[in-house]
Design brief:
170 residues; alpha+beta; Immunoglobulin-like; 2 domains; 32% helix; 36% strand
Amino acid sequence: MLQKAKRNSNIWKTSFEMQTLLQKPKIKNMIRGGDKLFSIVSILSVPVLLSVCLYWYYEREPLHKLENPVEMVVSPGETTHLDSFYTVSFDANRALYSMWIEDSRGRMVYEYQPQWVSKSSFTFGNQNITVPLQLAPGKYSLRGELQYPLNPFKTATVSAELVHLEVVNK
């Protein structure tokens, strides 16, 4: 108990010494100068941060020109390879790629499992796809979409019509 009291008295002594040290004019002026410098830097940093945020907010997505889709004749349950036809480069560590099949009216009839892409570029259509068994004979479109963060405020989206599918029973 006595040792605890001694430790507490050392704290008070140290605190008192700090207060008397801070009362000296030279140190007091140094602290005031540091406070003024911090205030000036803080005031100047606000317009800089605001302009960066405005740039990010109004930044446009990069334009991507995608080629015309090819036509394929497939049957339900068939696995086929899509040849690569367009590569998208982006400055992000991750992107989400989703792919789906639409009928001739533009309604989604089947959606494939979305995939996370962890490279800085992605090639649309360079993959194997399996035509779902539940598709009835007819004309369909296979579409893909890549979403990646453009900046902290925006997400860029690149959409492509990959293939025109004609499903026939074999």
